[in-house]
Amino acid sequence: MPKATGPEIMATAIAQKSKPQVDVVQSDLLPWLAGIDLDLYVPLDKATIPNLSQLYEPALIKDQAGKQIMGVEPYGDLFCLIWNKDVFAKKGWAAPTQWGDLTRPEFKNQLLIPPGTSTYGMYALIIQARANGGNETNIEPGFTAMKKIGPNVVDWSDTFAKMSQFLEDGTASLGFYGYSGAIDMMKRNLPVSFVIPEPTYMSPTAMGIMKNSPNPAGARAFVNWWISPEVLGYRAETYGNTVTNREVKITPAAAARLPSPDKLAKMVEVDYFTVLKNRQAWMDRFQREVSR
Fold first, then answer.
1. Residues 6 or more apart whose Cβ sits within 8 Å of residue 172
2. What is the value of pTM for the model shown?
């Protein structure tokens, strides 16, 4: 079920709960987790999906009791700031180095940020909360910062294609997005550069098998293939994904493009279940107060 965003994917999966038309559901982790509470997925086991044994333990998504594997995180995308080098050089602007740079006054009508209804937009809110003394249980500093940032957003871009186009043609000069998107733009020789500010944040991709799916055996075979060293090695090489299979081998050239172990060591874990409980209220408020 190809959809543009995680919430759209999950809305489709939830609508099919009584009679699934798909076998595997994959989306950003945050919206995907709601499927556990809604009893959408079947448990996974290493006997029928042997490549589970090759994944790092944090990549195994457990039920709330911590006993059954309900899904996996095959890879993730680190958040970053991407900017148009030509515009910055012409304006004489200093390159961004920290999350708080989104509030710099010179970026009036220059910003691209995904909407609050998307996973990336929700991370923007959380990151700004943490950058300004808050966190997931104290989100108010995030809204305060986003209200300052909001008026300077040219477009609340909900797709990578739109963000890429706007950064290329100069409609905007600075965007909040994922590392793999920055790598893709640079491969296409767009005039962009990027920075992964500290602390480092990652949005994992999650996948699971629908309960009562049409082809459960095929679904297990597909998940086993998708988390294999071959597939995840390809994703690391081609898309710059941070992958979770410890048996993956990549070329030195790909390793040089990927975030350093030091950068990954400074990665912050988000309290996903707290976010999930508050997400709808935060999305509604974001649309009402920030992106109106």
1. 84, 110, 111, 112, 154, 155, 166
2. 0.79
